[in-house]
Write a structure and sequence with these properties.
Length: about 450
């Protein structure tokens, strides 16, 4: 079991330029985070691998990039205006705000708090004498329902402005484009639409670093299938999703599939499974996979008065497709891969090193170019860096002892390092060092490009 703490990960992420506190020079803005040079690469790689697996290599799916701002009727139809609420409770003593369902779950994780009504939650908190996690007092306000959508307005003249919302999920943009895509791409059911993009939720209690924030990115698939086949596809996408996590290097032991009990299911869902990751505080949701029935398309058909039925030309039938939705947060996966990969090792010579074990396809840099002696090998190294950069993300470091430079690359997950020495000048070969095994071998430029390309494949 991985015992890496949250503090270790946060410090690591900041120290190496993966994640910084948002608006830091102004004292920050609570729960916002900025992704630095390494973090933005890692994030991009996560999204690229997701797209590769779920669009490029999928026989079923195509991509979409829809607007964040949607016609506000969307959110009436989807149910977000009426029911995208979390139960909020305040401590009377210190005024800290909490999610009532989380207070109950933290008290006893076997209780299905998200299936409880407001009254049941209030009763439970009173009966079990639950204390404020902030100050320990046991006196709370009544619970209020709090809508999580960010409201804003569009338009420049006061009387023509319109209240709109920042999307709380990317999914609805997909449903709004179902007909466009089905027609223009001539897709036949079953098929899916993938979207990656920002979502916004005014979370009551953001926290755990980048795990729960108010601005985040989702990678979602809405998979449209024939009514009656949804169970089969639900099982299929659960397997595919889990396999993706294993393939990018998450250990099986750190994953758990949790099925929602019937009483926990959202009003639109007939089955939901969360893939949970073992974060430093315990298992928690990484990826939600929901069978959404024909709820969304039916609702949009009713509210828009546009026909969203699918015409099955082979069987000459018309129906509203059923939908399976795997929905994954980019930042939650980002946190999982850093936590999974972080390790501290003692080497044979007694030195310690941080080894960030990332799948090479996820690594911010694939290779580091290091001149053995700055003065002597610099020009050649810079030339090589330039040529390698055409193939993959390459970094260059000439400062300090070679051992220290290796350590830095080990710590940021660079799978390979190349040193340039006198021999390179003579015969055009370089030393390629493997981060994990620390083995070295000499290769020509063509050989090393081939070797690296082969090894960073996903
Ligand atoms: P939770 O129970 O943790 O609030 P949820 O069940 O509301 O999550 P979904 O609506 O299923 O989450 O969203 C799908 C995915 O989007 C989640 O599995 C998670 O990876 C990601 N996600 C949701 N809310 C946030 C958030 N506030 N910050 C970061 N990622 C999020």
């Amino acid at each position: 079991m991985n015992k890496v703490t949250m503090d270790t990960i946060i410090n690591y992420a900041k120290r190496y330029g993966f994640v910084f506190q948002g608006s830091e020079i102004y004292g920050g803005l609570a729960n916002t985070w900025d992704y630095g040079p390494l973090g933005s690469e890692l994030k991009k790689n996560i999204k690229d691998l997701f797209w590769k697996r779920f669009v490029q290599e999928s026989p079923y799916n195509v991509g979409l990039d829809s607007s964040i701002l949607l016609n506000p009727k969307t959110w009436e139809a989807s149910g977000h205006i009426d029911s995208f609420n979390d139960p909020m409770i305040d401590c009377k003593q210190c005024n800290s705000r909490h999610r009532a369902d989380h207070l109950v779950e933290n008290h006893d994780e076997t209780v299905l708090a998200d299936a409880m009504s407001i009254n049941e939650l209030e009763d439970y908190i009173r009966k079990h004498n639950i204390a404020c996690p902030n100050c320990g007092a046991k006196s709370f306000t009544p619970i209020r329902q709090f809508n999580l959508m960010f409201r804003t307005s569009q338009g420049v003249v006061d009387d023509s402005t319109q209240d709109i919302f920042l999307r709380p999920e990317t999914a609805q943009g997909i449903f709004l484009n179902f007909r466009n895509i089905e027609r223009t791409s001539r897709m036949k059911i079953p098929f899916g639409i993938v979207q990656i993009g920002k979502s916004f939720r005014n979370e009551i209690t953001p926290g755990n670093f980048i795990f729960r924030t108010r601005e985040f990115e989702q990678m979602e698939l809405e998979f449209f299938c024939k009514p009656g086949t949804e169970k089969e596809w639900f099982a299929y996408w659960k397997d595919e999703s889990r396999q993706f996590l294993l393939d990018i290097g998450i250990a099986e032991d750190n994953l758990r599939m949790t099925d929602h009990e019937e009483s926990q299911l959202s009003h639109y869902s007939d089955a939901t499974t969360d893939i949970e990751y073992r974060y430093p505080w315990g298992f928690d949701e990484l990826w939600g996979i929901a069978s959404r029935t024909d709820y969304d398309l039916s609702q949009h058909q009713a509210h828009s008065e546009e026909n969203l039925e699918y015409h099955d030309q082979v069987e000459n039938t018309r129906f509203i497709p059923y939908v399976i939705e795997p929905s994954l947060g980019v930042e939650r996966l980002f946190l999982s891969v850093l936590h999974e990969g972080f390790s501290e090792e003692t080497l044979e010579n007694g030195e310690t090193r941080v080894n960030m074990k990332l799948h090479p396809a996820l690594a911010p840099y694939k290779v580091a170019v290091l001149p053995l002696i700055k003065k002597r090998h610099r020009d050649m190294a810079l030339e090589l860096h330039k040529r390698l950069s055409k193939h993959f993300m390459t970094t260059y470091d000439e400062a300090g002892k070679i051992g220290k430079r290796y350590r830095r690359q080990d710590a940021i997950g660079t799978p390979f390092a190349i040193t340039i020495d006198d021999e390179s000048k003579e015969d055009g070969t370089y030393t390629l060092r493997d981060k994990d095994t620390m083995e070295q071998k000499r290769l020509s430029e063509t050989e090393l490009i081939e070797f690296i390309k082969r090894n960073i494949q996903f």
